[in-house]
Write a structure and sequence with these properties.
GO molecular function: glyceryl-ether monooxygenase activity; iron ion binding
Protein name: Sterol desaturase
Number of strands: 0
Structural class: mainly alpha
Number of helices: 14
Radius of gyration: 21 Å
Distance between the termini: 15 Å
Largest sheet: none
Oligomer: single chain
Subcellular location: Endomembrane system
InterPro entries: Fatty_acid_hydroxylase (IPR006694), Sterol_desaturase/TMEM195 (IPR051689)
Order of helices and strands: HHHHHHHHHHHHHH
Membrane topology: Multi-pass membrane protein
Length: 330
């Protein structure tokens, strides 16, 4: 399938703008030292005083805390029937396997990359950026990590072949914590931005990377949740200014649920946009987002054939036997 020429031009144009955005934290760090005559006033090796009190909480969240939060909210969603009886036996199997596989298999891969590959490829760069102030490292990683993920997410929707790797995440006919980790494993390993983050941590930005990872996980998990925590911001007029800023900066349930709708014909769904993960502002900048403050009535993909868990997790290594499935043998 050929790519629409106008889409190709837009992608090239938006990538050019992205290169400028990537450079902004680097420019800010340069100006910081220039106006301080090159003096190192602080280093991220030691957290700013106002953040030291929360460091233990962030460290626990990074190890086991986020999994506990995810499971806890998932139980709440299930008790209150927020899955609308769509979490069938086959769907549970896909969700559970996709939840466990990355947590069991991905850490060794990232550890090997960080401990073996990086020292071999860039042996003289370990802790080379340890002089960068915490705030500088935080924004450098936040932008590099999330803008990179915006792009691989967007391209997996706009390039037909790549869509087959990302399709698993959109096969769920419901929203909730259970499907937040629902991804093709090869998509996660080969196309993730985690290698960029690991590289920056190797360069000496470990603490900023920790804070970005935890903050991003909280935002993305809450955006997938069936608990619409953003509705009060739309309901009460006094909170409307906060809502206006919030929904343009980060992903909320309303904006991200729209991305998982199975149609764009209702004026609410926007699976062809709303690609932001932690930051929704990328969709604002590149005109790929819509904000309606409404929630879709149905979710998933019209082409979903309830493919086997192994096909959804490991296509194209394993194919589906479901007739008419894009994941089946051709």
């Amino acid at each position: 399938m050929q790519i629409d020429p106008s889409l190709k031009i837009k992608i090239i144009k938006d990538i050019s703008v992205s290169l400028l955005i990537y450079s902004l934290p680097v420019l800010a760090i340069y100006l910081y030292f220039k106006f301080n005559d090159g003096a190192l006033l602080e280093s991220h090796v030691s957290l700013p005083p106002f953040l030291k009190i929360v460091q233990p909480a962030f460290e626990h969240l990074k190890t086991w805390g986020l999994t506990a939060v995810l499971l806890g909210l998932g139980v709440i969603e299930f008790i209150f029937g927020l899955y609308d009886n769509k979490w069938t036996s086959s769907e549970r199997k896909v969700d559970i396997v996709c939840f466990l596989a990355p947590k069991l298999l991905l850490p060794p891969i990232i550890a090997f990359f960080s401990l073996k590959i990086l020292p071999l490829v860039v042996p003289n760069f370990e802790n080379a950026l340890s002089w960068v102030p915490f705030w500088g490292g935080f924004f450098l990683i936040a932008i590099a990590d999330d803008l990179t993920q915006y792009w691989y997410h967007r391209l997996h929707h706009q390039l037909p072949f790549l869509w087959l790797f990302h399709r698993t995440h959109h096969s769920a006919p419901y929203m909730g914590m259970a499907m937040a980790s629902r991804q093709n494993f090869i998509y996660t390993v080969l196309f993730s931005q985690i290698y960029l983050t690991a590289t920056l941590a190797y360069f000496g930005l470990g603490l900023p990377a920790l804070f970005v990872t935890v903050l991003k996980s909280i935002i993305t998990l809450s955006a997938h949740s069936s608990i619409a925590w953003d509705k009060p911001f739309y309901k009460y007029k006094v909170l409307h200014p906060v809502a206006w800023v919030l929904e343009r900066v980060i992903s909320t349930p309303a904006t991200h649920h729209a991305h998982h709708a199975d149609t764009t014909g209702d004026g609410v769904g926007n699976y062809k946009g709303n690609f932001g993960n932690m930051f929704f502002i990328w969709d604002i900048i590149f005109h790929t987002g819509i904000i309606t403050r409404q929630f879709p009535k149905t979710y998933g993909s019209k082409s979903y054939k309830q493919e086997e868990w192994y096909a959804q997790l490991l296509w194209p290594i394993f194919k589906s036997s479901k007739e008419g499935s894009p994941l089946a043998r051709r």
